[in-house]
Amino acid sequence: MTKTSKAEIVTAARDLMRDKGYAGTSMKDVAERVGLLKGSLYSHFPSKESLVPEVLNLTFNELFGEIEPSGNWRDDYEIALDRLTTMLTRHRRCIGLHLAYGLEDTSPQLQDAVAGFFLDIREAFRELLMQGLDLGLAEPLALDTMTAVEGATLWLALYGNSGPIEGAKAALLARADSLAAEDPDEKVCKLLDQMTGDWRRASLAEKRLAARVIKAEDDLLMAQAKFDAYAEAESCFR
Question: In what residue span(s) does the HTH tetR-type domain sit (predicted)?
Answer without folding.
Answer: 3-63
